[in-house]
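Lab notebook, bench 4. The sequencing result for the construct came back, and we need a structural model before the next group meeting so we can plan mutations. Quick request posted to the team channel:

Model the 3D structure of this chain.
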Amino acid sequence: MLVSACLAGIPCRYDGKSRGREEIIALVKAGRARTFCPEVLGGLKIPRAPSEIVGGDGGDVLDGKAKVMSRDGEDLTTEFIGGANAVLDLCRKSGTNEVLLKSKSPSCGVGKVHDGTFSGTLRMGDGVTAALLKRNGIKVVEIE
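Done. Here's the predicted structure in token form:
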């Protein structure tokens, strides 16, 4: 199983923090799960400006209909897609068919993501990594 690194207590979120969950940390320590951060795998630094999907959700980003933009106005679409592809490669190489993802993230969000206005408003949809994994038959589980 693969899990979002921030859920395992690794400080890789945009703000340099984590959202560690004891049950996830225990899975990793027991060797039952491996960690990843699609944004770091895509080449983004820690910390970084917050990003949101503008014009749709992760599926729309993959289809070229939406972009991932930082609050500073930087287009990070390439990095988010690259990170998503890196996670898919990890799944394939490790034979993983289930991934635990952090909710609301423009990468990992499952079912809801921020709406691109940086106002805290959520919209229905998946992050870029969640959308790519789903398209490839990987089960994604949201961890709030």
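Helices lie at 22-29, 38-41, 58-62, 77-94, 128-135.
Will bring this to the meeting.
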